[in-house]
Amino acid sequence: MTFTMLMAKNVQKCFKYLMGPHTIRQMSSKLAEEDLKVTDECVKRLEAICDKDEFLRLSVESGGCSGYQYKFELDTAIAKDDCVLEKQGIKIVVDTTSLNFIKGSTIDYEQQLIRAAFRLIKNPKAEDGCSCGASFSIKID
């Protein structure tokens, strides 16, 4: 085996290790803890509505009044490109693509007479949004 072939094989092994699901979750988990905040109201609501294996999944999709919209749903499956945030026994999961749109934001739960919902507040990546707060446009630097 030539030196070049040996190096290529070692690079492939390292890449497979670094990109393995466990390693991605570990790296992503730390990133999510630093870049995504959760209010106490959100934690309390999730404690009340989630079963043992359920968590809140937050994603960003194209659409809505302003170009992008936040989507909140309960889920039980974690993909290898997901970032997991744990706080006081609850989990919030965001895929890495969506996390790029919401870094530095806060997840809140708001209850009013006309509605009760999870919402994302203080998103430094958002420039404009609709009045209900469900959609936003990206701030271009």
Write up what this structure looks like.
This protein has helices at residues 3-18, 21-35, 40-49, 96-102; strands spanning 36-38, 55-62, 68-75, 82-87, 90-95, 105-111, 116-121, 126-129, 135-138. It is an alpha+beta fold. The longest helix is centred in the first third of the chain and has 16 residues, at 3-18.
Key structural traits:
3-stranded mixed beta sheet, 4 helices, alpha+beta, 37% strand, 141 residues
What fraction of residues sit in β-strands? 35-45%
Morphology: globular
Largest sheet: 6 strands, mixed
Low-confidence stretches: 10-28
By helix and strand content, what is the structural category?
Answer: alpha+beta
Helix content: 25-40%
Task: Find the count of extended strands (DSSP E, 2+ residues).
Answer: 9
Major sheet: arrangement of strands: 4-5-2-3-9-8
Please specify the SSE layout and strand pairing.
Layout: H1 3-18, H2 21-35, E1 36-38, H3 40-49, E2 55-62, E3 68-75, E4 82-87, E5 90-95, H4 96-102, E6 105-111, E7 116-121, E8 126-129, E9 135-138
Parallel strand pairs: 1-6, 2-5
Antiparallel strand pairs: 2-3, 3-9, 4-5, 6-7, 8-9
Q: Can you describe this structure in just a few lines?
A:
Helices cover 34% and strands 37% of the residues.
